[in-house]
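Quiz preparation item.
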């Protein structure tokens, strides 16, 4: 029986489709759902060039690190709301820094995940691949079942 499901969230339509399916499975089986966003790099503790004028006008300092973390937090919060809307009960959110595939595999191992749900393609730099590099690597190396979910496009 599936007790814990891991789903990757990056805000893409494919990831949203994976969240929908994972949430529906979790709701039917009473499984815990762990939603993860992986930040590829932590960012710098500097103000991006684009925001320097804003910093001077408003006397607010916003660093790359804070922007990346804020975006990741918003993505997992929206994903959790989406999952709960599909009936998932126990929902946990995580944001981690690292290689997306390696991070997902590590979390799956540490948390004894029974199923990983991934969008077929995400928001990676290379578009148009039949199967995204993260979903391909995870599905090949995971010690549990994996589902890759196509997006609506």
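Solution:
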């Amino acid at each position: 029986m599936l007790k814990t499901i891991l789903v990757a969230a990056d805000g893409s339509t494919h990831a949203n489709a994976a969240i929908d399916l994972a949430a529906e499975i979790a709701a039917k089986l009473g499984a815990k759902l762990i939603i993860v966003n992986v930040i590829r790099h932590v960012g710098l503790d500097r103000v991006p060039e684009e925001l320097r004028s804003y910093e001077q006008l408003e006397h607010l300092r916003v660093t790359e690190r804070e922007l990346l973390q804020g975006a990741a937090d918003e993505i997992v919060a929206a994903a959790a709301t989406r999952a709960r809307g599909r009936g998932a009960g126990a929902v946990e959110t995580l944001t981690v820094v690292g290689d997306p595939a390696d991070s997902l595999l590590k979390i799956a191992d540490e948390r004894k995940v029974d199923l990983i749900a991934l969008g077929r393609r995400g928001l990676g730099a290379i578009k148009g691949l039949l199967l995204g590099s993260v979903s391909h690597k995870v599905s090949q190396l995971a010690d549990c079942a994996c589902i890759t979910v196509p997006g609506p496009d």
